[in-house]
Design brief:
Glucose Permease (Domain IIA); 3 helices; 2 domains
Length: 295
């Protein structure tokens, strides 16, 4: 005879404290195994879920921190973009000026070649001064058409110099005005600046705050300094004996930049001074405060 398969089970006996009848529960071994597996799965899920939640909370805090930093970076980036645009405009403007002065990209031209290009550039735009004819300087000795009385220029003290730092109002050198500004006609050539006679070695001062674009020797104006003043103004200082500033250096209004000389096409110590506004030569008398008292 075959023995009957008896189902294995676990009996649980509960005995109450009030002396009532005990309670008996029977759970099969198979059910116990199932409950054990389910409990293990739940424990694993709780453990894994806790780890995931911890990592999620850390990642979430880090993401929020990155969002705040990203907002700050965007604000900084806007300021950098504005500064970059300003620098880019200055670089482009500087490149155009240097190209006009004869500097090619990638290498430096010799001083002799630079002076030749500078002379050609100035002559092509009719920048040969009125008093420079056949390499000689003619001085106006008596008033008449196109002539003037010698006027001794002295600097005017005014708070406007400090108020308008980037406007060329400061007289570069004190001395006698020998040649005036004039756009030429059929009979007389252009003279796109003023000539101020002064003693050899007198200090030349910047007419306004700015950056030195050019500081070198040219055949026409000798030792020449060109300064850009950030608001469309450019000033020229020619015939200097010695240049005291280098290219790309920043200068303040009234700062000494050179010494009066007789270099280039000149027969007597003087300063040739020009003001250009947005690429157009203008009469320095309209800006230099020293002329306001001469009217």
């Amino acid at each position: 005879m075959k023995r009957k398969n008896r189902k294995k089970h676990l009996s649980i006996l509960l005995i109450p404290d009030d002396y009532s009848d005990p309670l008996t529960f029977k759970i099969s071994i198979r059910m116990i195994k199932i409950l054990t597996v389910v409990a293990s799965i739940l424990v694993i899920h709780i453990f894994v879920g806790s780890i995931f939640y911890f990592k999620f909370s850390v990642t979430n805090r880090y993401c929020k921190q990155l969002e705040r930093e990203n907002i700050n970076l965007k604000e900084d980036n806007k300021q950098i973009t504005r500064l970059y645009d300003t620098v880019e405009q200055l670089i482009q403007f500087n490149s155009k000026v240097r190209e006009a002065l004869g500097y090619d990209q990638g290498f430096k031209i010799s001083d002799r070649k630079t002076s030749q290009f500078m002379d050609t550039f100035r002559r092509n735009i009719n920048m040969v001064p009125e008093n420079e004819v056949n390499g000689e300087i003619t001085i106006n000795k008596s008033p008449g058409k196109g002539q003037l009385d010698f006027i001794f220029l002295t600097r005017s003290k005014s708070n406007y110099h400090q108020f308008a730092n980037n406007i060329p109002t400061y007289l570069p050198v004190e001395g006698f005005l020998t040649t005036d500004f004039r756009k030429g006609d059929w009979f007389l050539p252009n003279h796109l600046g003023i000539d101020i006679a002064a003693s050899l070695g007198s200090t030349v001062h910047a007419a306004a705050d700015g950056v030195v674009l050019f500081a070198n020797w040219t055949e026409d104006l000798g030792n020449l300094i060109i300064i850009y003043h950030f608001n469309g103004f450019i000033t020229y200082y020619g015939h200097n004996h010695l240049l005291l500033k280098k290219e790309n250096s920043f200068v303040k209004k009234g700062e000494t930049i050179a010494l009066v000389g007789n270099s280039g096409r000149s027969t007597a110590p003087h300063l040739h001074f020009e003001i250009w506004k947005d690429g157009i030569p203008v009469n320095p008398k309209e800006y230099l405060l020293a002329f306001q008292n001469k009217k």
